[in-house]
Amino acid sequence: MGHLLVTGGAGFIGANFVHHVLEHTDHTVTVLDKLTYAGNRENLTTADPARCDLVVGDVADAGVVGDLVPAADAVVHFAAESHNDNSLRDPEPFLRTNVVGTYTLLEAARRHGTRFHHVSTDEVFGDLALEDPQRFTAETPYRPSSPYSATKAASDHLVRAWARSFGLEVTLSNCSNNYGPYQHVEKFIPRQITNVLTGRRPKLYGAGANVRDWIHVADHSAAVLRILESGRPGRTYLIGADGEADNLTVLRAILRLLGQPEDAFDHVTDRPGHDRRYAIDGSRTREELGWEPRYTDFTVGLADTIAWYTEHRDWWEPVKAATEASYGRTGQ
Ligand code: NAD
Ligand code: TDX
């Protein structure tokens, strides 16, 4: 494979993926990242500069993308506006980055015949009822609920259209909820950990019955690399680790691990249109690629994540107060 262009590589999952690639392969990497509020160059400071460089730029900028794609053997596309709550406050950046940005990359990849891996989410399938025995498969119809998931669904459709209409060599992956190091404190798990660490009370939307299917980011990174190495062109791979848990249960586990009483949190205004449950059936991916998650005990992954946030206060403290102030404006 050789040289990878990793978009969004200064964000949570992208940075974890870059470190995984540098550790487990001989590839070199160029990261293209706009360094929005969610991107942080510090996420890459431990990456070997001889094998990894960062270009600060926008995936929707055809000039920048046109300069970088020709040198790459493959594009791995993580860059996105990724937070549902933000997409409810202001959808515009989601349209620009997730839809126009993906289109811009696809056009450059088409011109140069570059292999393209698109990183997407299980949220494109909408939600399941809590009691529904079904889980999402690659055949589940698209039914996105939020501006975020609608723009990710649009980007998935663009990728498939470029494969069918123009013969672009693509793979796609739809993964469940990630947790682990470098996740922005706007997201559920790091928000609650850092609330406790700063003496704030954790905030649970509604009753906390909504279910998410948690996977450690290290397992997601390993699966994406496996798809790049041996995924079949045109295929969609669902990535999950059988990690379903409702939000109340996850919050109680965080409180317990941090030595707090299990009721030391506030119920706050629910998210409008809040998806009830996500659940991935990743069996086909496992069988085809021989990939298995290594974090099979959620409590172990959660304890590691709590340790990381406890040891890296300098990484998240500068943005914590502003993130909470922004939530405060919507009663969350
Ligand atoms: P994140 O918000 O932490 O990081 C996104 C990164 O993209 C940031 O570094 C940001 O600066 C960069 N970026 C944003 N707009 C850009 C633009 N226009 N041009 C260049 N760079 C830009 O997101 P994340 O949680 O790491 O998610 C990464 C990808 O994985 C996204 O495509 C997301 O949809 C997908 N995904 C996330 C999850 C999850 O649980 N977080 C689950 C499944 C799939
Ligand atoms: O303070 C909170 N309290 C709370 O109860 C926050 C921030 C969230 N929640 C709830 C909402 C969700 O049910 O926790 C659950 C998880 O919320 P998020 O971390 O915002 O994730 P989610 O909306 O499920 O989307 C995530 O997984 C799929 C990522 O942000 C997406 O990028 C990914 O596609």
TrEMBL record:
- In its keyword annotation, does this UniProt entry include NAD? yes
Which processes are annotated in GO (biological process)? nucleotide-sugar metabolic process
Catalysed conversion reaction: dTDP-alpha-D-glucose = dTDP-4-dehydro-6-deoxy-alpha-D-glucose + H2O
| One Pfam family named in its UniProt record | GDP_Man_Dehyd
Locate the NAD(P)-binding domain: which residues?
Answer: 5-296
Query: Which top class of enzyme applies to this chain?
Result: lyase
What keywords were assigned to this record?
Lyase, NAD
GO terms for MF: dTDP-glucose 4,6-dehydratase activity
Q: What is its EC number?
A: 4.2.1.46
Cofactor list: NAD(+)
Q: Does the keyword Acetylation apply?
A: no
Into which family does the record put it? Belongs to the NAD(P)-dependent epimerase/dehydratase family. dTDP-glucose dehydratase subfamily.
Q: What is this protein called?
A: dTDP-glucose 4,6-dehydratase
Organism equals Kocuria varians (Micrococcus varians)
**Encoding gene, per UniProt annotation:** rmlB
